[in-house]
Design goal:
mainly beta; globular; 5 helices; 276 residues; single chain; disordered C terminus; disordered N terminus
Length: 276
């Protein structure tokens, strides 16, 4: 290791502390629906509702109840999301429900994919589309027995949804039940909790939090910093040959899950890049 790397090892802990902080921000979860409906709007099909008794937040729990509404009812996010991770607990007492994602406003109703909450196969991917000129819906991913075995009907269950590009992964009670490529995925769209039409529905949701995937930010330290000039500063030189990672220097790097990383700066953890 040359003298430049030796001089850089002393401040490594300080620099890596900043890197860990940036990595934490990469998965910054925002809580929602824990106090009220702020950030969400109830819809009767495509019609926004000023008031509704179908969606309420009480004691940190979203209550979604309807008695055979004539049209689909949604609680839609005011914000559109691209790649994201979403975690929550849900309890489906009656009927069928789900959480739609990357949805958009169609001619008759909202369109796009959904993670289904059915008692039979929770976590299966469903979609709402215009097909042959008519508004239609159907399952697009295959069911399997693992969906049932990981789920307890009419009790609290946890779910995590990860969407990145066209890939959708779903965990139910910490067990992955879906890993599906949805080729028609929009770049971004709305989230929407669902209450089916013409059915009695009773759904409860709590501990909702969402994190948007962000581009990894790396930290660069150059010779100028060692000369007493300002540094370190943020850099996006992932593939710049003038930079070297701690892994290449033999310095162990750990991800937020505690696992030792062996990949380069394009891996799941932000990299500290030192100038050669």
């Amino acid at each position: 290791m040359n003298s430049l790397y030796t001089r850089l090892l002393a401040p490594l802990l300080i620099i890596w502390g900043l890197g860990a902080k940036l990595h934490g921000q990469e998965y910054q979860f925002i809580k929602t629906l824990d106090k009220n409906l702020q950030g969400w709007t109830p819809y009767d099909a495509l019609t926004p509702l000023q008031t509704t008794d179908k969606w309420k937040v009480m004691d940190g729990v979203l209550h979604a109840i309807t008695d055979k509404a004539p049209r689909e009812n949604w609680l839609m996010s005011d914000k559109q999301y691209g790649d994201f991770i979403m975690q929550f607990d849900f309890k489906l007492v009656q009927g069928n429900s789900g959480i739609n994602f990357h949805n958009f406003f169609g001619k008759e109703d909202i369109e796009g994919p959904q993670v289904d909450f059915s008692h039979d196969f929770p976590g299966r991917i469903y979609e709402y589309i215009i097909k042959d000129g008519k508004y239609a819906s159907h399952y697009v991913s295959e069911p399997h027995e693992g969906m049932k075995s990981s789920y307890t009907p009419k009790e609290w269950n946890s779910m995590e949804i990860r969407v990145k590009g066209t890939r959708v992964q779903v965990d139910v009670n910490d067990k992955q039940v879906t890993d599906y490529i949805y080729p028609k995925m929009k770049a971004k769209g709305f989230l929407a909790w669902q209450l089916h039409k013409n059915q009695v529905k009773e759904l409860y949701v709590r501990n909702v939090q969402i994190s948007e995937w962000q581009e990894v930010v790396s930290i660069g330290v150059t010779r100028k910093a060692q000369a007493g000039k300002r540094g370190p500063w943020l850099s996006t030189a992932f593939s710049n040959p003038d930079y070297v990672t701690p892994l290449e220097m033999g310095v162990p790097v750990f991800g937020i899950d505690g696992r030792k990383l062996t990949g380069g700066p394009m891996g799941p953890s932000p990299a500290i890049l030192f100038h050669k």
